[in-house]
Amino acid sequence: MADEPTELVPADDQGLLVPGLATDHPAAAKMMKALKRKTPKGIIKTRPGPGGMRFAYVHWSWIVQRLNEVFGPTWGREVVGYDRIDLPDLPPRHDRDCGGKRGRCSANHGPRKRIEVITRVRITTPWGNKDATGGHTYFPDNAEQGYADAEQAAISKGMKRAASLLGIALDLYTDLPDDTAVEADFALQDAQAAWRSELGAAGLTEKASVSLLSEKMAGDATALTTVDDLLAATGEEGAPAYRKLIETLRETVAEVGSEKPA
User: Would strands 45-48 and 17-19 be described as parallel, antiparallel, or unpaired?
Assistant: First the structure.
């Protein structure tokens, strides 16, 4: 005689019932297998990471497709939390001809305002809900990105993170059986985005930033030749290395901006 499925127990205050041990329920086992299915190589995108590694990710539209495949029309997405934080101003973003790099800005460029848009996204399913937070930095002086674009980017990040808690695309983040490495990758992704934003705020290309910071950190503009070299020179790894590098870049840009001709 086959074993009986685990008794159903309440999952929330809305009357939802799920197996006490979900893997004992045939329908749950099938659903969990579908959610944890390996991400197809053809839809995986990559971006540079520290130590010459590549960071893998997928577009939010593929996450929606996977949720549709598993749950059909019974899943939903809600923005259950929203906040905006005025971050400290960044140094002025000088252009090539304003003279700001020499401490004589002819265009009166002022400090750059920036706002962190934070959303808490919930994915609802017949088997329970998952919440996660996503954030994106909005620069009011960026003519190429409106506030709504920053808000949508924050929502997309939150949705992808919530989906990973269900098991979707989880194989891209970690081989470990717990959430530690997943959170570490999320932190690294955010730190890398913050680094790119900082470069844009300073009006620097990656190559120019390497030369500038190499002189600051090693006393020679040619001693460190790549961002990986800069990260290694911080003495940190992962997200902390990027955060330390961002702090050093801010200090260096402020010093250059305050220098006056003799």
Answer: unpaired
